[in-house]
């Protein structure tokens, strides 16, 4: 048999590449290496700007040329780094050699020894992860979830007044509107997205065990913590002053817990829409040429929502695992974080894929008002709550002497099918005020939605 290898093992890099490829800009091996080069280059510029060890500030042109190795980082550089790592067997050392070679090519060999100066690998790695994860979240994941929230909000407004039977415990319950139910999800996801937007991205830059030992022995008079803080902040990150060799990764645990939370709410949305489709509330718009079932030609399956469900579970499994493992490291460091962090893109990739499917799925469903109306019309007993509540108010107001209205309505409706005529006859016979009676007689299941429609208007 002909060998098929090498092939991508992950579907994110195979069939789903087009949906999640944008994340690779940041959360791939190449994205990480480019950020590592950026941190090394910026550290060189920061040191020369401060004239460390008699060095001179680089000219604007020299700085621009140095920074261009970051902005023009491409396949040739990826390959060169792979070649260097094959020798060093140390990924960050390979980056250091790559930067040194770039300095040579730029005629800046005199500052070569400032490359990676006083740094441990984690000084470069933690800043690179903070940069790449921040950019992936802000430039890719958050815009996508905002697209989904916008699509949900638009559907909520569209179906603002579409009365729908509720189901609590799967049983017919006080009606609502489809718009209000979709608005609940938009509201929940909006809150979580705002929390994710506000997540902190911390960075440490303090040497082999977080003590600035090498820094101080090389230059005792420099205010190293201040230099470190300024450098970390210059990368748009928040300075972490107190760590072991590694950044403590608490910001990552916080972020992944929030994204995982968003995943679970999205999962709830996906399974609810799936259920509404199954009830016939939503029709799926068939795509020309597409097949639902390989054997049952009539079918249009809710595959967008089922794909999302599975990928949200996978994403949360990865992100929960990262959030859990990253906050522990034996004594001053072990390398488990390094191995685990290589899967950050997997966690975000499955979530992004699910968001893409939900977004597409939301664009392929049509509400069927006739099914909603028929379901409401078949469940007049849900008005039992309305009637017993009005009777209570009438009793308190002195217009009725009915004792235990709840029991009265329970006797009429519990576990029974009650039609419009039954209820009308029951209401006619009630000892309550005329206005209340008229209000109850005018009520239908579809009209018993409270202020569900107006609640949709509360969406920002
Ligand atoms: O500044 C340092 O390097 C400090 C050093 N600890 C290390 N810190 C960061 N990276 C390290 C460390 N050790 C190994 N490596 C490199 O990690 C890579 C692990 O490769 P893989 O198992 O493929 O994920 C692979 O490239 C390894 O070479 C220490 O001893 O404290």
UniProtKB/TrEMBL annotation:
Residues 59-308 form the Fumarate lyase N-terminal domain. The keyword Aminoacyl-tRNA synthetase does not apply. One of its GO terms (molecular function) is N6-(1,2-dicarboxyethyl)AMP AMP-lyase (fumarate-forming) activity. InterPro entries: Fumarase/histidase_N, Fumarate_lyase_CS, Fumarate_lyase_fam, Fumarate_lyase_N, L-Aspartase-like, PurB_bact, PurB_C. PROSITE patterns: FUMARATE_LYASES. Residues 329-449 form the Adenylosuccinate lyase PurB C-terminal domain. GO terms for biological process: IMP biosynthetic process. It holds the Pfam family ASL_C. The keyword Cell inner membrane does not apply. Keywords: Lyase, Purine biosynthesis. Pathway: Purine metabolism; AMP biosynthesis via de novo pathway; AMP from IMP: step 2/2; Purine metabolism; IMP biosynthesis via de novo pathway; 5-amino-1-(5-phospho-D-ribosyl)imidazole-4-carboxamide from 5-amino-1-(5-phospho-D-ribosyl)imidazole-4-carboxylate: step 2/2. PANTHER family: ADENYLOSUCCINATE LYASE (PTHR43411:SF1). Catalyzes two reactions in de novo purine nucleotide biosynthesis. Catalyzes the breakdown of 5-aminoimidazole- (N-succinylocarboxamide) ribotide (SAICAR or 2-[5-amino-1-(5-phospho-beta-D-ribosyl)imidazole-4-carboxamido]succinate) to 5-aminoimidazole-4-carboxamide ribotide (AICAR or 5-amino-1-(5-phospho-beta-D-ribosyl)imidazole-4-carboxamide) and fumarate, and of adenylosuccinate (ADS or N(6)-(1,2-dicarboxyethyl)-AMP) to adenosine monophosphate (AMP) and fumarate. This is Adenylosuccinate lyase. It comes from Agromyces bauzanensis.
